[in-house]
């Protein structure tokens, strides 16, 4: 006797058809993948049944062969297969999760276990490749890295440069006589009687480095210079002799200023002032990454700095912050004495391929 497989509908001898627990008569080729779907549907199959030692070995071999990977570890539970990819050279951690539902969705398009596993491996390899740090050529910036729409960088008059070289001699002592030194300055809306001075030399390493100094001219006192070297002390010291003047019109500029010149071991807490900001390479704005199994698009996530609300002595602001390899949306409180405090933070990704390095000291 002959009958048709209820999946592929081919005609087979009844001896070559088997009945699934769900009651369907299937050929040998269709039975295996159909039983997997049945077990998933009826809760009889978990991730441990799928991601066994052989599958884990396949993931490990494929991922550790990638030149961007330093180490790979994994963990499997009944609900999810979790991979931990440590990227070199800085050991950033990229995590991915494959829950049972995700596997079921993939299996429905590729009704073969090996094809499904291969698809997952290739997908994660593609994600890892996107996170690989690109080789970017160090360029010599012609303008200071710190920039805001309200800033107007202008060359310092030649008559003043000798005095500035003397004032900053400790930082310029290694500059060769033939090395070019450039001085630019700009007023700051939140400091009266002051200016921000940027210094660049062809001798500086890396080539894009600029040094920054706050020049404070108190009404009753001598001119003071504060080196903006990534520590908060110079800004707070300046605020003591030259009170900062923060209001609703300039609080966002002060927030960007403060966060740029205060650094942690990961670098500046860079507030991205506008979309497509050139401080980040073009590919960062164009590429879509994966974080927690969800697409991450910098252009879509970006929120420009904005004032949420103001009180008697404080301002609550929202901004998109880039620090090291991480991207976050933060709410920060700025008070009228110049203190900035992070009130809340939503981390979007901690393993982005571009590390923002701002050399201050």
Explain how this protein is built.
- With 361 residues, this protein is an alpha+beta fold.
- It folds into 3 domains: 1-45, no CATH class; 46-132; 154-349, no CATH class.
- It has 11 helices and 21 strands.
- It has helices at residues 28-41, 47-50, 53-64, 100-109, 113-131, 158-167, 169-172, 233-241, 251-261, 282-286, 298-301; strands at residues 2-4, 11-13, 17-19, 25-27, 69-76, 80-87, 92-99, 154-155, 181-186, 194-201, 211-216, 224-227, 263-264, 267-268, 270-271, 288-291, 294-297, 306-310, 314-323, 326-335, 340-349.
- It has a 5-stranded antiparallel sheet, with helices on both faces. Strands 15, 18, 19, 20 and 21 form a 5-stranded antiparallel sheet that branches.
- A hairpin with a 3-residue loop joins strand 18 (306-310) and strand 19.
- Helix 3 (53-64) packs parallel to helix 5 (113-131).
- The radius of gyration is 29 Å and the shape is elongated.
- The model has no long low-confidence stretch (mean pLDDT 83).
Provide a short characterization of the protein structure:
The protein has 361 residues and is α+β, with helices and mostly antiparallel strands. 28% of the residues lie in helices and 31% in strands. The strands form seven sheets. It has a five-stranded antiparallel beta sheet with strand order 8-9-10-11-12, with helices on both faces. Strands 15, 18, 19, 20 and 21 form a five-stranded antiparallel beta sheet that branches.
């Amino acid at each position: 006797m002959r009958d048709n497989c209820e999946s592929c509908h081919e005609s087979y001898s009844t001896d070559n058809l088997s009945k699934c627990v769900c009651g369907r008569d299937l050929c040998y080729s269709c039975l295996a993948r159909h039983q997997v779907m049945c077990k998933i549907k009826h809760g009889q199959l978990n991730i441990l049944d799928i991601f066994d030692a052989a599958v884990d070995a396949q993931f490990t071999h494929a991922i550790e062969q990638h030149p961007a990977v330093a180490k790979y570890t994994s963990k499997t539970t009944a609900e999810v297969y979790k991979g931990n990819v440590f990227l070199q050279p800085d050991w950033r951690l990229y995590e991915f999760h494959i829950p049972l539902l995700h596997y079921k969705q993939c299996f429905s398009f590729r009704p073969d276990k090996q094809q499904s596993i291969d698809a997952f491996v290739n997908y994660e390899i593609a994600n890892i490749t996107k996170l690989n740090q690109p080789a970017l050529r160090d360029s010599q910036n012609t303008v200071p890295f710190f920039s805001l729409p309200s800033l107007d960088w202008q060359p310092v008059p030649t008559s003043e440069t000798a005095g500035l070289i003397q004032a900053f001699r400790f930082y310029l002592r290694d500059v060769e006589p033939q090395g070019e030194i450039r001085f630019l300055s700009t007023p700051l809306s939140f400091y009266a009687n002051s200016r921000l001075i940027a210094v660049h030399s062809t001798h500086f390493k890396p080539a894009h480095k600029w040094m920054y100094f706050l020049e404070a001219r108190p009404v009753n006192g001598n001119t003071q210079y504060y080196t903006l070297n990534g520590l908060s002390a110079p800004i707070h010291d300046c605020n003591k002799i030259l009170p900062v003047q923060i209001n609703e019109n300039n609080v966002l500029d002060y927030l960007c200023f403060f966060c740029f010149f205060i650094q942690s071991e990961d670098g500046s807490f860079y507030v991205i002032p506008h979309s497509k900001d050139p401080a980040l390479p073009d590919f960062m704005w164009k590429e879509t990454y994966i974080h927690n199994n969800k697409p991450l698009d910098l252009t879509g996530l970006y929120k420009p700095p904005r004032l949420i609300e103001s009180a008697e002595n404080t301002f609550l602001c929202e901004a998109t912050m880039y620090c090291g390899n991480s991207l976050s949306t933060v709410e920060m409180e700025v008070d009228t004495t110049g203190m900035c405090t992070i009130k809340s933070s939503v981390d979007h990704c901690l393993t982005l391929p571009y590390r923002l390095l701002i050399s201050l000291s």
